[in-house]
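ingest -> validate -> predict -> emit
validate: passed (alphabet ok, no gaps, 472 aa)
predict: started
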Amino acid sequence: MSNSITYNSRYIFYMMICLGAIACSPTYYQSNQNFNQQFEQGQLDNALQQLQSKPGESSGRQELLYYVNNGLVLSMMGKYNESNEYLEKAYLFGEDYRKNYLYEATSYLTNPMITNYRGEDHEHLMVLYYKALNFLKLGQHENALVECRRLNIRLQQLSDRYESDIKYRKDAFVHALMGIIYETDKDYNNAFIAYRNAYEIYTDEYEKLFRITAPDQLKEDLVRAAFLSGLNDEFEFYKTKFQLHDFTYQQPEGGELVFFWHNGLSPIKAEWGITFVVTRRDNWIYFTNAELGITFPFPLDNYNERERGGLSSMEVFRVAFPRYIERPVYFTQASLIQNDKELPLQLLEDVNKIAFHSLQQRMNLELSKALIRVAVKKSLEYQVRKEDRMLGTMLGAINALTERADTRNWQTLPHQIQYTRVPLEAGKNTLTLQLKSVNETTTQQFTYEATKGQILFHTYTSLESRYPYYGY
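emit:
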């Protein structure tokens, strides 16, 4: 064995030790345990302090998550301008994101946690939702319209990226939000178009993908926008279609309230492993898990001699993948009570279902990347083992330790978003929010001052959830 080969092997070994130290770090949820505990208990001041005690994350691998978590917490605290400063940075991160190819290459020697977190498709849409909502609460409708246009561009990009009807590529909730923003600006024609788009996406895609139907409130919004736009044929068509035969529109004396309920907490990413058996046939390697009915073929022609040796030497191995853990909602329904009239809050977006579906729709890609990662590790291990058996054995142990999934996601998002629209009287209005769980009913009162033609916005967040134990 030459000194050169020995040196290279030992260099690789020590490099893997350093990378292994990074790779064996806890999951994203575990590494932010203090923040998560404070946030889930509603201790927002303490949660914000925990977040901002790690300013280094604003330029590290968790940069996007640092921005969005700060933005969401500040929004919940009513600090809308400060919130939007962080959310704008998150938006620009998504616009300017470029792969770091050194980190990408290194991830195949360790795991994806070493790369910059890019964010899920729905997370980038939620950034603009919170920004728009902040502007609406500040009464800055023009700025909200800017976010509306940005949302439209992001939706077009999402639609262009995926062609399959079973992919999450359209978002009914975002179109409904755009309709609300246009209507606030008295642009009733664009509001009608946005509401109609939302309704069609609920009907054509959400019912099939998520079993979510168009809320009745959206149907009323669509009919009202048609009437205010002077689209008489459309007004009559949708009024009949939705069986709103008695629908008449009269501008409320004191304006309206759009009430959003952020219920529960979105899922967290954890890790699960799949064991594959390797079989060889001609110039192909087959990775098979009989229990799940999964088989992935890899042509050996695509690899050099060293890599083929590493692949051929494998028999059984474990691959790590991300998975979501749901945090089931504690409150199952809510309504606003106004002068003894009960107005139910209706499901507008199920963030939990979209997160699960988004991960599922790219699972083949995740499986392929993970298998390539293991193949690269095993090929390197095979080469080192030929030169130094003990070193190869140690490298194999490190490979096993570094096999981890990417467990990062925006974990402070709500489980679901519900809403309703309430006509207000001029002056003081007192409404009661009623929340129901399996075992209890709780109420809370809110007071609003309204003037004619005004649209007010309010968000109420329930952080309670029925989550299982997770130390993931």
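Confidence is low (pLDDT under 50) at residues 1-8, 10-15, 17-24, 100-109.
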